[in-house]
Specification:
Elements: H1 3-39, H2 42-73, H3 77-110, H4 115-141, H5 144-172, H6 177-212
C-alpha cells in the first residue's frame, strides 16, 4: 500500500468513526428524552437541545471531510460509495436528532405531567432506541442482514404507534377539552418518533448500497 493510499484509508476510517460518533450522540438524546419522561426533569430537556448543537457540528464536520476527500482523492467504486454513505447517514441522523429537540421543546412548553402520555412517549422511544442502536451496529459491521432485520422492526414501531393513536383518540372522547388538547399534542410528538423510524429505514437502504452497490427501496 502506497503512502497516499494509506493516508486516504486513514481519512476514510476517520469519516466512518465520526458517523458512528454521531450515532452515539443521537442515541444519548433519546436516552435523555426517556429520562425526561420518567423524572419530569426539564433541565434534561434543556440538555437535549444543547446535545443537538454537538450533533449538528459533527454533521458539518462529516460533510467537510467527505467533500475534501472527493475533491483531493477522486475516489472510485467502493471508496466513493463509502463517502456517499457517510454523507447520507449523517444527514439522516441529524434529522433523527432534531425530533428529540422538537419533543424537548414540547416538554418545556407544556410541562406535561400526564403519566399516561409520558408512558406512551417512553414506550415508542424505547422501541426506536433499539432500532437506532442496531442500525449503527449494522453500519459499523457493514452487515446487510442486520440492516434488513432492523428495517423490519420499523413495522413494530408503526403498529405500536397506530395502536397508541387509537387509544388516545378513544380516551379523548370521554375527556375534558383541556385533556383532548393535550392528547392531540402528544399525538404530534408520537408522530415525530414514528418518522424517526422511517429515517432508520433510509439508513438501512444506504447500508445495502454501501455493501452491494445497489439502491433498494425498503419503505
Amino acid at each position: 500500500m502506497t503512502a497516499n493510499r494509506r493516508h486516504f484509508v486513514e481519512e476514510l476510517n476517520n469519516l466512518n468513526y465520526k458517523v458512528l460518533e454521531m450515532g452515539e450522540e443521537t442515541l444519548k438524546s433519546y436516552v435523555r428524552l426517556i429520562l425526561v419522561c420518567k423524572t419530569k426533569d426539564l433541565d434534561l430537556a434543556e440538555q437535549i437541545m444543547e446535545q443537538d448543537k454537538l450533533i449538528n457540528e459533527l454533521e458539518v464536520s462529516i460533510n467537510v471531510d467527505a467533500y475534501l476527500l472527493i475533491a483531493k482523492q477522486c475516489p472510485v467504486a467502493s471508496d466513493l460509495r463509502r463517502i456517499i454513505t457517510a454523507l447520507k447517514i449523517s444527514n439522516e441522523l441529524e434529522r433523527i436528532a432534531d425530533y428529540t429537540v422538537n419533543i424537548a421543546k414540547y416538554m418545556i412548553a407544556t410541562k406535561n405531567n400526564n403519566d399516561q402520555f409520558l408512558e406512551n412517549i417512553t414506550s415508542l422511544s424505547t422501541i426506536f432506541m433499539d432500532m437506532l442502536k442496531r442500525i449503527m451496529e449494522a453500519f459499523e459491521k457493514e452487515d446487510v442482514k442486520l440492516a434488513l432485520e432492523v428495517n423490519s422492526a420499523d413495522e413494530i414501531l408503526d403498529k405500536e404507534y397506530k395502536k397508541t393513536v387509537k387509544n388516545l383518540i378513544k380516551t379523548a372522547k370521554t375527556s375534558s377539552d383541556e385533556e383532548i388538547e393535550e392528547a392531540m399534542r402528544v399525538l404530534i410528538v408520537l408522530k415525530q418518533i414514528e418518522r424517526a423510524g422511517d429515517h432508520v429505514t433510509n439508513i438501512a437502504e444506504n447500508i445495502v448500497y454501501l455493501v452491494n452497490g445497489k439502491r433498494v427501496e425498503l419503505n
